[in-house]
Amino acid sequence: MKSFSYHNPVRILFGDKQKYIANILKADEHFKILLVYGKNSIKKSGLYDEICKVLNDAGIEFIEHGEVSSNPTLSHAKEGVQKAKDVTAILAVGGGSVIDESKAIAAAAASKYDVWELYEGKKPTDALDLYVILTVSATGSEMNSGSVLTNEETKEKLSFGSPLIYPKVSIINPSLSVTLPKEYLVYSAVDIIAHVLEVYFTAEEHSKLLNRFCENIIKSVIKTTEKLLENPNDINARSEFALCATWALNGLTSLGVGSYSFPNHMIEHSLSALYNVPHGAGLAVVLPAWLKWFYANTKNPQVERFAKKIFSQKSAEGGIDAFKKWLKKIGAPITLENLGIKSDEIEKIAENVDLVSYKWELKHEYPLKTIKKILKLAK
Amino acid sequence: MKSFSYHNPVRILFGDKQKYIANILKADEHFKILLVYGKNSIKKSGLYDEICKVLNDAGIEFIEHGEVSSNPTLSHAKEGVQKAKDVTAILAVGGGSVIDESKAIAAAAASKYDVWELYEGKKPTDALDLYVILTVSATGSEMNSGSVLTNEETKEKLSFGSPLIYPKVSIINPSLSVTLPKEYLVYSAVDIIAHVLEVYFTAEEHSKLLNRFCENIIKSVIKTTEKLLENPNDINARSEFALCATWALNGLTSLGVGSYSFPNHMIEHSLSALYNVPHGAGLAVVLPAWLKWFYANTKNPQVERFAKKIFSQKSAEGGIDAFKKWLKKIGAPITLENLGIKSDEIEKIAENVDLVSYKWELKHEYPLKTIKKILKLAK
User: Fold this and answer.
1) Are strands A4-6 and B11-14 parallel, antiparallel or unpaired?
2) Taking residues A95-108, what's their average pLDDT?
């Protein structure tokens, strides 16, 4: 195992606890906040009314910043920063997109930077306190220090990280996601699995302990996704699924593994940036293609292990195939065509990836021709 | 899954990082500290000299509080509180005993309580900042908020917990434990496995995700213990072992499992309190006996699962037997006799347990006659 440093200060409140949010904010001396949320779902579900009532009853003033899109955008985050001028905290009610845009606003408002400077590498000097009520378990953003945003003008989808943007408190109430459309459950499942697999396959060093930890999460996601597709009201399955999402990207999967990278995320981000496809849908297309290319080029035994442990397959190729079949079975797109992207777009996508690969520290490992090769496997 | 709240603020620095301790203390504005350590081992290994030099070079004044015993005592902790009067932080260099006594001193000194009041239920109002350099991976105290202390006069070994006593920073350098005598490696292994099993068997609710998480730790401890008994210099095994120890009692194994208890620890504490046996040695004797009693009385399917997953045994009894054999194989004591305790002491031990079982909230579940029955199985 490699040396590491680990510190995750997020307080997780798991269960039906959104009613406590006003007291939590007041205990931390926040009386004027920015309330960030997405499109319609929390209004339809009644959660919006519930939160407004809790805040109003407690005398907490709030400025609203709704309409965050599923691939949150720079222009919308900038509007949020304007509104955040005289608040002391942000309450994000939603999934990963709402949290990520909230993190951008929190850091930009307190650091007095232009939002995009953060994604271009400027380190925030401060951030507003961030609180989360999670409605979609997928990105793990509720318990990590990263944020992803899309610059619609330059068509770049980039990320930044800082210990300053860890949420103070994240309330994870699995029953809030019962009304999530099935296709978003599927995209979420793929996102969680992708988070685990990026580390599992690209880590510098592997230990059985961490391998099994990763496989445990993947097995649970596979099982609970199948259960939830059959019965969206299975709260036990939803809870286990939610904990997997949080564990998959809160730092635990990468303890002692040394360096690792996110090539699938890098490639997918260009699909989201160019065609606004849901992140998990894009990942379902990229992952099997990347995995095929990766094994062909590295013969990495982790792929054989994955095949055996997750899909009981004797060969790596059999495992990749079984993975693709499972993705298809749960209704995920598995080709660019499934996403409505023609194969003559591959050049353009690859160039978009190439434009940002230095940011992922993958410029050397993924030259343009390699990216094209992977994308061709995803046709 | 049950609802839960999770917050673990400890910063873990894993690897050869003890040299950074002075800068860490200074960054937190600590210039006069209490240095707590055990008997001779850190002096023999050179770690004591290394730490003193690092502190001296940085101009950090330190008062020494050495000679902490392996079952730390109330009288010694009280001396520590006297010495801690004008320090702002504590640096614990050692294993679980040193950390636990340091936690007692940290809370008692800052809360102005008598030490024992904390173990009798009084909640600390404050605590000195605590920093740890871990030399023995076993108790998990480096990443949790609990402390165990023995009152030599009353022969009570009790625990208390408070978020105030989480270490600020714990440096875990697995190579510092290379010189640990083999029997202490064995006791450590048993302690780690016991921490996992208490939750695994007594939890109100089980999920496959958490079950597999627990089994993963146990499997790694079994494997790495065997490796380290053969080759104490296997740093990879030692690192994996260390991470298991930390994971076993930092809250992760019990997420969403509802209530659970520590009956084996309760019974073992009386062995330590009365005969000063090492905690892990006592646990090795209590665990198989308790497990036999537990399965006979509850037919809890977790025991069958344990037998199957850990020891590939078809029956619960076969699993318990295999567990006992494995303990014997690694050189752990498995009977009271092995500990040098005669069977006519059982009455006295049971009464000592009965005296404190209310503190463990196990008075009802473990009446005197049950405790005697379990102890008889350990003859």
Assistant:
1) antiparallel
2) 98
pLDDT at residue number A112: 87
Q: Residue A212 is nearest to which of B6, B11, B216, comparing CB atoms?
A: B216
Query: Nearest-CA distance from B267 to chain A in Å?
Result: 30
Average pLDDT, chain A: 97
Q: Which of A4, A240, A243 sits opposite B14 (nearest CB)?
A: A4
Range of the domain at A205: 181-377
Residue A48 has pLDDT above 90, yes or no: yes
Task: Count Cβ neighbours within 10 Å for each residue of B337-365 and write b for 16 or more, e otherwise.
Answer: eebebeeeebeebbebbbebbebbebeee
B6 lies in some domain:
no
> DSSP alpha helices (H): ranges in A231-367?
235-248, 263-275, 279-298, 301-311, 316-329, 346-356
**Contact: B240, A1; criterion CB under 8 Å:** yes
Whether B268 and chain A come into contact, CB under 8 Å, resolves to: no
Do A105 and A136 lie in one domain? The reply is yes
Cα(B199)–Cα(B212) distance, rounded to whole angstroms? 13
Q: Is residue A4 classed as helix, strand or coil in its secondary structure? A: strand
Residues B82, B164 within the same domain:
yes
Q: Which ipTM score applies to this complex?
A: 0.95
Distance CA A62, CA A30 (A): 10
- Whether B257 is covered by a domain: the verdict is yes
Asked if residue B150 has pLDDT above 90, the reply is yes
- Residue ending a domain, among B129, B145, B176, is B176
Task: Tell whether B59 is covered by a domain.
Answer: yes
Angle CA A271–A276–A279, to nearest 5: 65
Q: For the segment B233-247, what is each residue's pLDDT rounded down to a tens digit?
A: 999 999 999 999 999
State the pLDDT confidence band at B87, using cuts at 50, 70 and 90: very high
B120 lies in some domain:
yes
User: Looking at the partner chain, which of B9, B209, B244 has a beta carbon nearest the beta carbon of A9?
Assistant: B9
**A167 and A196 share a domain?**
no
User: B1 vs A243: CB contact, 8 Å cut-off?
Assistant: yes
Which 3 state secondary structure label does DSSP give A224?
helix
CA of B205: which chain A residue's CA is closest? A236
Counted domains in chain B: 2
- Measured CA angle at A125 (ends A123, A126), to 5 deg: 125
**Domain termination site, one of B152, B176, B200:** B176
